Amino acid sequence: MTHPLVDQLRFTRSEFQRALRGLKDGKARRRFLPMNCISWNIGHLAWQEQRYFLFYAQGQMPLPEIDKSFASGAPACTPA
Question: Exposed, middle or buried, 54 (CB in 10 Å: 0-12/13-18/19+)?
């Protein structure tokens, strides 16, 4: 039986992907100040998952560049 938090993560991911369906690259990288662009927010979610599920739980950091570019407080950018 799958842990409820895993089910919740899978559901959240699928809903996020559904919301992004059809979004063009140029619009994903457009920034509306003071908020970051959608592509940065996707990187931020990847940073959170790597940090909590891989680094804290297993001591793994497979993509250290995510830790620098998309951590809370990281400078704004418009990644492709």
Answer: middle
